[in-house]
Amino acid sequence: MTYLRVIGGVPLSGTVQADGSKNSILPIMAACLLADSEESVIEGAPALTDIDSQLAILTGLGAKADRDPHGRLHISASNIKTTTVPFELAKKLRASYYMAGALLARVGHFKVALPGGCNIGERPVDQHIKGFEALGATVKIEGGYLIGHTRSRLKGNEIYLDIQSHGATINIILAATLATGQTIIENASKEPEIVDLCSFLIKMGADIRGAGTNVIRIQGVDKLTGQSHRIIPDRMEAGTYMIAAAMTRGSVYVERSIHYHLSPLCAKLREMGVTVIDDTSGIYVNAERPLKPTVLKTLPFPGFPTDLQAQMTSLLAITQGTSMITETVFSNRFQHVPELIRMGASMKVEGQTLMIDGVRKLSGAHVKATDLRSAAALALGGLAAEGETIIDGLDHLDRGYSCFEAKLQNLGASVHRFGNGAKLHLVSSHDAIGG
Ligand SMILES: CC(=O)N[C@H]1[C@@H](OP(=O)(O)OP(=O)(O)OC[C@H]2O[C@@H](n3ccc(=O)[nH]c3=O)[C@H](O)[C@@H]2O)O[C@H](CO)[C@@H](O)[C@@H]1O
Ligand SMILES: C=C(OP(=O)(O)O)C(=O)O
């Protein structure tokens, strides 16, 4: 077992760089399957277990998929030997289901085990199925697999998404790129990762208009070829470090973060009294003044992202006054709450709403992360807490944060990984910092 030990109390200070976006690179890796010639080279791929899992899936399908020593991914899918993604591989990440749209377009059939990923509530695929069927495929769920085929080439169609689903928008775009005729996706997701995927597909030869708006038009083409692409910065990772700066009353420059992608977070932090300044290369956060409580609701982009909700919970836990968070995207995304309460937070979940009565300080405790962003939220709690916090469940953290400890150490934090039977020993921050 491996744990993270965080000694709180140090205001973060310095510069941290955002890596390439996990939620952008994973569908782009699936899109590489659409090219029957030329290698794709993806730059800016961080060292994440989700990326390793997606590489293993591509290799299993017969593609050549590797990471070079400079962190670039090389993917070439001239041969596809199977269209089955077994449970053992698919269960590791939600993004495994993007193989369905790509395989359906490229070879006309797929059998992909229903995915894993974060345990944050129901993650149905009815909108993905609706889209594939509208394009002419026959799709069923059987034995834990999503199975689809089409007898002839997929045919473009109009598809209205009942829910503005990020995943379904991506899967339908992937399937529609090689269809005949035009596909129009209405009520499409507008998230930056969709725009990045479409930029890559357009370089490959796809004809796509409207990415980043609610209506995306895809005119099918006959062929796509591999291309090079640099992934956009990870707004969730960048946002996590911005919140960490605010929590520790620090002063941090998050290089490569894009203000437009983070505008809901920047707005909320400013409302709370944090200084947030954006320039051409990043965002500067300074939180020396006392902060004010706030109210926020998670929504599809450009609303407040659900992937930053847990981290904001940690910040509001130590912001005196009453705050309220409503989670509208996922049905079970407050699993960090009992752990923060273990650290002294005062908050209560009422349905999809969390009422927070901000306390002056959290205190270190042994806590367990049950999903990716809750792991980050607990680490942030630890950075601001008195004493030592031990965090269990790092497999979740490693899915989405690369060099997490090193980046925080660089900002002055005391964060270390230890494990394999190492003795847990809780100490006070005074002892630990050597005061
Ligand atoms: C809208 C939103 O914030 N999406 C987030 C979601 O994308 P992800 O693609 O995982 O989720 P979706 O956007 O598809 O889901 C949004 C909502 O739609 C529902 N749904 C989805 C598909 C479907 O076929 N039927 C259905 O009912 C889901 O249960 C959920 O309540 O998690 C990603 C990883 O955390 C984030 O990067 C995305 O920003
Ligand atoms: C929940 C997340 O990832 P996934 O949807 O891949 O499980 C996330 O990125 O916060």
TrEMBL record:
Pathway: Cell wall biogenesis; peptidoglycan biosynthesis. Phosphoenolpyruvate binds at K22, N23. GO terms for molecular function: UDP-N-acetylglucosamine 1-carboxyvinyltransferase activity. The gene is murA. Residues 9-408 form the Enolpyruvate transferase domain. It is found in: Cytoplasm. This is UDP-N-acetylglucosamine 1-carboxyvinyltransferase. Transmembrane segments: none annotated. The active site is at C118. The keyword Hydrolase does not apply. Pfam families: EPSP_synthase (PF00275). Its EC number is 2.5.1.7. The modification 2-(S-cysteinyl)pyruvic acid O-phosphothioketal is found at C118. Keywords: Cell cycle, Cell division, Cell shape, Cell wall biogenesis/degradation, Cytoplasm, Peptidoglycan synthesis, Pyruvate, Transferase. Its main location: cytoplasm. Belongs to the EPSP synthase family. MurA subfamily. It comes from the Bacteria. UDP-N-acetyl-alpha-D-glucosamine binds at R94, R123, P124, V125, D126, Q127, D307, V329. Cell wall formation. Adds enolpyruvyl to UDP-N-acetylglucosamine. Signal peptide: none annotated. It catalyses: phosphoenolpyruvate + UDP-N-acetyl-alpha-D-glucosamine = UDP-N-acetyl-3-O-(1-carboxyvinyl)-alpha-D-glucosamine + phosphate.
